[in-house]
Amino acid sequence: MTTDISLKNINRLAIPALIAGVAEPILSLTDTAIIGNVELNPTESLAAVGIVATFLSMLIWVFGQSRSAISSLVSQYLGANKLDAIKTLPAQAIFIMILLSLLIIAITYPLAASIFKLYNAEHLILDYSVVYYKIRVFGFPFTLFTFAVFGTFRGLQNTFYPMIIAIVGASLNIILDFMFVYGVEGYVPAMHIKGAAIASVIAQMVMAILAVIFLLKKTEISLKVKLQLHPEIPRFAMMVLNLFVRTLALNVTLYFATRFATSYGKDYIAAYTIGINLWFLGAFIIDGYASAGNILSGKLLGSKSYGQLIGLSNKLIRYGILVGLTLTALGASFYYPIGRIFTEEAQVLKAFYDIFWIILAMQPLCALAFIFDGMFKGMGKMRFLRNLLLMATSLVFLPMLFILDSFDLKLYAVFIALTFWMLARGLPLIIKFRKLFLPKVENH
Fold first, then answer.
1. Nearest-CA neighbor of 368 among 316, 307, 439?
2. How far apart are CA 10 and CA 295, in angstroms?
């Protein structure tokens, strides 16, 4: 089976995936921008949203890995012309993830204050964090459900419907944010930070409903859960487990980054909130091409088209670096206006502008890491991804963070350590990929 790896086909998958991928960071960025401009305690509110967004991102990244596992299995079966044999897997996988999400809510809801104290949140910031989290967490099951459906569509080489769902969800969230945070005189009371959380949950619910409609109407995949487990469920579980451990390591990085930023004071955590959310946005934009790599690599591996797999990697390296450089150039062109979108607090802006250039400079490096990360997920190489992330976090990020912090570099320490962490993630993936598949091409 020949798979089209032309720029046209890559963009057909990557551009809708890019748009779909930015939905979650747009939810957080919208909350950040709107909350950062409220009249009542804007700095404390912004800090609280940043802390909760970091924790929720951890949960979503840990448990949302089911998307990659489902996509990998479906695409490999599609490449091997055995799609009928995998049709019942997504429903069982989704059911398992929903049960896990409900368990997470049951555990974290009563412990919210204790959780955010671990991030050095205190006083008003802690109060706001708890209020915001205890509403936003109810969107978690809907997000996991939507992610799993997106994984199914990706496996079927379709990123168009996830894009439509994401556009509707993000647009609705922006509208509701303005309505609920600031209020609509005579109709909707101003609800401040509670309003931002409610807006996000409603948007996530609507996205989940649309995901059900599109999956049932546009594919032959059923959401009916059969009692007899699919033969690939153990493999799916092992993939998710490896990604679970990997993502825990990833979130150790984010936890320490947020904890250190919070310890520097409210202006620094507010600046960090803006910076890290923009970093997330860049990551999800680049993830469009990572998604194309994820989708096509699984299919190519399933059909044993190793020459095309190498060709795909070479093309994605070029496209990824180009996207990364474009993001850097755009950020540099609007360096100061970007900060003022989120806050007018002078001290917060100063702290943000001091480190924003680091975030921009690391975008091409992030592109390489994310693209090969996506390809390895598509091929089901989750164990290697797990081990690499564990080493990058424990041997690179944490030592660098503690060393640089000892020189009182504050946010410089956090973002320089993040840059070297991305370098430690990206280069080994490229080397490993070529060691795995260049010999197969020569011998095939």
1. 316
2. 10
Please report, to the nearest 10 degrees, the dihedral formed by the alpha carbons of residues 48, 52, 54, 60 taken in order: -160
Q: How far, in Å, are 92, 222, 223 from residue 96 at the CA level?
A: 6, 15, 12
Contact 55, 41 (CB under 8 A): no
- Residue 188 — φ and ψ, nearest 5°? -125, 125
DSSP state of 227: S
Residue 196 near residue 181 (C-beta atoms within 8 A): yes
Tell me what the pLDDT averaged over the chain comes to.
88
Distance CA 360, CA 349 (A): 16
Q: How far does Cα 132 stand from its chain's mean position?
A: 20
- pLDDT of 1 strictly over 60: no
* Cα 54 from Cα 316, distance rounded (Å): 29
Cβ-based neighbours of 349, under 8 Å, separated by 6 or more: 271, 339, 340, 343
Question: The pTM is what?
Answer: 0.76
CA distance 354 to 351: 5
DSSP 344-359: --HHHHHHHHHHHHHH
**Which tokens is 37 given?**
């401009």
Q: How far is CA 360 from the centre of its chain?
A: 18
Comparison of pLDDT for 343 and 22, the residue scoring more: 343
CA 326 to chain centre: 20
